[in-house]
Amino acid sequence: MTTAKAIRFARTGGPEVLEYVDVEVGDPGPGEARVRNHAIGVNFIDTYFRSGLYPLDLPNGLGQEGAGVVEAVGEGVTHVRPGDRVAYAARPNGAYSQLRVMPADVLVHLPDAISFETGAAMMLQGLTVQYLLKQTHAVQPGETILFHAAAGGVGLIACQWARALGVNLIGTVGSNEKAALARQRGAAHVINYRDEDVVQRVLEITNGAKVPVVYDSVGKDMFTRSLDCLQPRGLMVSFGNSSGPVPPFALNELASRGSLYITRPTLQSYAATRAQRDAMAADLFDVVASGKVSIDIHQRFPLADAAQAHIALEGRRTTGKTILLP
């Protein structure tokens, strides 16, 4: 057994429930690998597990994303070996740790050209953008789309990737500073929802046509406005709940707006197999290595300060990506 530092929580609640503790890490079993994290990604979904919105058996660890080096592998593991640079974005939770034993199947090889910090910062959000823009609704050159929280970690990747694909992305943000950042990263139009009427601005930008797809990670506060921005038979992609979960609604809300579609996708569903995960990661690595998409790491915290990272994230005081350094 090896002793390592990790974040654990024994009850749900605010950031104060996170504890920085010593844990015992053993050898990997069949199908497992022991990975020493060099950087760890912080994502809004982590706050859902911590708060209890997404239930977990307690006590438990936190975090689904990281990058590091394989130290040992268990029986049957052949696609990675000790010394390999790897990255991952997958359950189970436990990435907020210096060292962990985890399923080897979720590990992908991290190219030498991509640093551990970038690897940890790009996997969950980058793979999310990959399935959103390439699979949930395969965007087309010249298309105009609406993407909420455009200055967040997912949003800034989406702004750049959409531009690379020839797509006109309308991004919503909550401040003028965030608006400038989204424009810099490729948003064709930016709406500050604190000062502007989102639906009215989308109508103006599209000359009344509205958009074929809305990507919404905000949830409760934006849901109705998102529906109102869609063309008949448009697709509402609800992939997060940063303002709270979407309340129950009548299906007739979709009918009255023109036979709308709605989906609630997850990365776990799109990257359900190693083949799917590897293909999505290769697409992501290619667009980052090409320089068309850069990964904005704007906040770095020591692993011990994970609670402070959550306070900043939930207070909407962050832009781009937040990472923890073990």
How are the SSEs placed, and which strands pair?
Layout: E1 2-9, E2 19-25, E3 32-42, H1 44-51, E4 60-61, E5 65-73, E6 85-89, E7 99-103, E8 108-109, H2 116-136, E9 144-147, H3 153-164, E10 168-173, H4 176-184, E11 189-192, H5 198-205, E12 211-216, H6 223-228, E13 230-238, H7 252-255, E14 261-263, H8 267-270, H9 274-289, E15 297-302, H10 306-314, E16 321-325
Helix pairs in contact: 2-3, 2-9
Feature tags:
single chain; 326 residues; alpha/beta; Quinone Oxidoreductase, Chain A, domain 1; Rossmann fold; 2 domains; seven-stranded mixed beta sheet; six-stranded parallel beta sheet; 10 helices; 16 strands; 28% strand; NADP; ER
Description:
This protein is an alpha/beta fold and 326 residues long. The chain folds into two domains: 2-123 and 271-325, Quinone Oxidoreductase, Chain A, domain 1 (Alpha-Beta Complex); 141-264, NAD(P)-binding Rossmann-like Domain (Rossmann fold), CATH 3.40.50.720. The chain contains ten helices and 16 strands. It has helices at residues 44-51, 116-136, 153-164, 176-184, 198-205, 223-228, 252-255, 267-270, 274-289, 306-314, and strands at residues 2-9, 19-25, 32-42, 60-61, 65-73, 85-89, 99-103, 108-109, 144-147, 168-173, 189-192, 211-216, 230-238, 261-263, 297-302, 321-325. The strands form three sheets. Strands 3, 5, 6, 7, 8, 15 and 16 form a seven-stranded mixed sheet that branches. Strands 11-10-9-12-13-14 form a six-stranded parallel sheet, with helices on both faces. Strand 10 (168-173), helix 4 (176-184) and strand 11 (189-192) form a beta-alpha-beta unit. Helix 2 (116-136) crosses helix 9 (274-289). The protein is globular, with a radius of gyration of 20 Å. The two termini are 19 Å apart. The mean pLDDT is 95.
